[in-house]
Amino acid sequence: MGLIQVVVAALCGVLVLVAAVGLVRDRTQGRAVLVLSGLIEVALLVHLVVGIVRLAGPHEVSTVTYAGYLVGVLLVMPAAIWWASFERTRAGTAVVLVGALTVAFLVFRTYDLWRFAGVTGG
Amino acid sequence: MAERVAVGTSSGLGRLLVAVYAVFALSATGRSTVQIATKLDEAPVPYLLSGLAALVYIVATVALAMDGARWWRIALAACLVELVGVLGVGTVSLLVPEEFAEPTVWSHFGKGYGFVPLVLPFVGLAWLRRTRPGR
Description:
The complex is a heterodimer of chains A (about 120) and B (about 140).
Chain A (H helix, E strand, L loop, with lengths): L2 H22 L6 H26 L6 H22 L6 H26 L6
Chain B lengths: L12 H27 L4 H22 L3 H27 L20 H15 L5
């Protein structure tokens, strides 16, 4: 995995932990969640730039699919934070947790797309 | 004639449910759009079913996110179609695996997605039962 993908995954891991603790302690999202989500977005912007640079070079991956992952993953945390902000119970914190897991999953998928491009003929 | 809704479908546990449905709406839409746009002739039936799954997830997400008796009924319909879809496509994909070589969200009962697509309609229906309007 690229350095930036490791960074994103690590930040998502921390956010999952923070959200899990919040879930157990029955808290709604706090400052830590917002800061971590902001850091994830910044890291994902770097991920986007790195991905675009890769696409500009020779590659076997489907450009549309790869670009779709690079851009799509940027929408997840803002959507999760927005949707959670209407919730007065800990379910909002669970939404943030699902968001962080989704970002991590999408980044792993992005890595797989690149790694297996051309290998399986797809 | 006002119908009373005891608990909205979008708050509490429903808040989380909508988020999970949204994730599936997004991923199924992305995958099926690519499949239908670029290689529909390779396997038309699974890919069209993939598109149907995406549509059902979108309808379920929106209907659960909205409160009110009408949206509750739409959500119920979507979850029932989803249940029939994942059980039907799951069964057929086991019987004729050669037709479902490329994974879709419902094939093999959602194995490629950690079987969440199999569990999700049951959770959705249980939640709709708890939030049934007019109680």
